[in-house]
Amino acid sequence: xxxxxxxxxxxxxxxxxxxxxxxxxxxxxxxxxxxxxxxxxxxxxxxxxxxxxxxxxxxxxxxxxxxxxxxxxxxxxxxxxxxxxxxxxxxxxxxxxxxxxxxxxxxxxxxxxxxxxxxxxxxxxxxxxxxxxxxxxxxxxxxxxxxxxxxxxxxxxxxxxxxxxxxxxxxxxxxxxxxxxxxxxxxxxxxxxxxxxxxxxxxxxxxxxxxxxxxxxxxxxxxxxxxxxxxxxxxxxxxxxxxxxxxxxxxxxxxxxxxxxxxxxxxxxxxxxxxxxxxxxxxxxxxxxxxxxxxxxxxxxxxxxxxxxxxxxxxxxxxxxxxxxxxxxxxxxxxxxxxxxxxxxxxxxxxxxxxxxxxxxxxxxxxxxxxxxxxxxx
Length: 378
Known about the structure:
Blueprint: E1 16-17, E2 20-21, H1 33-47, H2 55-71, E3 74-77, E4 83-87, E5 90-95, E6 98-101, E7 108-111, E8 119-123, E9 125-130, E10 135-140, H3 142-145, E11 146-148, E12 154-165, H4 170-175, H5 180-197, H6 201-205, H7 209-227, E13 231-242, H8 248-317, H9 319-335, E14 342-344, E15 351-353, H10 358-363
Antiparallel strand pairs: 1-2, 3-6, 4-5, 4-7, 8-12, 9-10, 11-12, 12-13, 14-15
Helix pairs in contact: 5-7, 8-9
């Protein structure tokens, strides 16, 4: 009998060597695996009296395995996901978020894409870690952002695209495109370059952003629908539209000069809109006054002519009487508004005779005191 089986060797029983006791484990000893397996076998034999290789034992094991297999068909769809159930690799249905069930593998499997989440892709810029600022900063990507306009100018365009999976296009999204983000980014850059290439630089830098965004979105959606990508473009946002950094100061000077030109044109138009109507009003006033004077002069001339003809007719009938009447009317018209003195130049005359204006006295109010007026007859 070898010495190693006789009480642990020539140095006694236990884990000893020629130099004494070997290293002892520190702390609690780990459980014995063989002992655990033996206890499990004993309990299984107690449950299945005939042993687990008997008919009842095999049936119980098979039922247990089948139960576990059927139970493996339960799955949970998160709030931003949609469940795509595949039966032998073919898309059969789409399930909403929550607890769902499919036939266990390998009959059916499930894919869980983030179909309800809106994703963002940036073109022309990227976020990088900035240890100095303890955060992330934006870095420009010139190979993506520099584009050529229709009037052969270079413009730097940074924009973002917001997209999501179509609710009824999850299957197309999973099986028609291999790299969704790369495809959307490539289509976005191509569409933006096409729109910029058809446009002039000045509208792009000033007031055509909204129109450009809408055109790019429609063009992207049309291209992705042609690919059958199952992607919905929700919005295109232009973040920065500037000339290249090397010439941006010159472009700003040009924009300032054009703004001054527009301002001066507006001021000139405002002054013209103010002066021209006033001049037209004065001209119309002068024309109306001239027309009025013309009508008045013509009417007066016609009246004088008619009066002369009437007087001439009367003169032919009675020349003396008419001549006397004309003389008296003329003197009345000449002397009617002047002070009058009557001179009696005869032999028995008194010289200057005071003139009593009876017509004026009859129009004046008599004094209330009853005293005679100072302008009475002398």
